[in-house]
Specification:
By secondary structure, the chain is mainly α. It has one domain. The protein contains four helices and no strands. The radius of gyration is 16 Å and the shape is elongated. The chain starts with a helix and ends in a 13-residue tail after the last helix. The mean pLDDT is about 95.
C-alpha cells in the first residue's frame, strides 16, 4: 500500500487532490501495517503535514507581500513567499522519490521523523 500512496503523492503534484486521498489511505493503513511499512506510512503523513505548514507560510507571505509590493516594501515578502513555495515543491518531490527508493529496496524508511530526508 505505501507504493500506491507514494504514487498518489507524486501524481498529486499535478492535480493536488490525490495527495489528500493518499493521506487518508496512509492513516487508514497505519494500524494494520507491519513495522517496516509503518515507517513509510509515518514518513508519508509527516511529509504531508510539514508541506502543508510550509505551504501556508509561503502562501501567506505571497498574499501579504503582493498588495504591499505596490509601495515597494512588500517585494521581499512576495519573493520570499514564492521562494518558499518553490522550495517546498522540490522538497516534497524529493522526499517522495527517496521514499520510493527505500520501498523498492524493501527497506524500512530509516528516519521517518526527520525534517529533511
Amino acid at each position: 500500500m505505501p507504493a500506491v500512496i507514494y504514487g498518489l503523492y507524486l501524481i498529486g503534484l499535478a492535480n493536488g487532490i490525490t495527495i489528500l486521498i493518499g493521506l487518508i489511505l496512509a492513516y487508514a493503513q497505519k494500524g494494520a501495517a507491519g513495522p517496516r511499512m509503518r515507517t513509510h506510512l509515518t514518513f508519508l503523513t509527516r511529509t504531508f503535514w510539514l508541506s502543508i505548514g510550509w505551504f501556508l507560510i509561503g502562501g501567506l507571505l505571497v498574499l501579504f507581500g503582493f498588495p504591499l509590493s505596490f509601495v515597494l516594501i512588500g517585494i521581499p515578502f512576495f519573493l520570499l513567499g514564492w521562494l518558499i513555495l518553490a522550495a517546498i515543491g522540490v522538497w516534497f518531490t524529493v522526499r517522495a522519490i527517496v521514499g520510493v527508493i527505500y520501498l523498492a529496496r524493501d527497506e524500512p524508511y530509516p528516519r521517518p521523523y526527520a525534517m529533511l530526508l
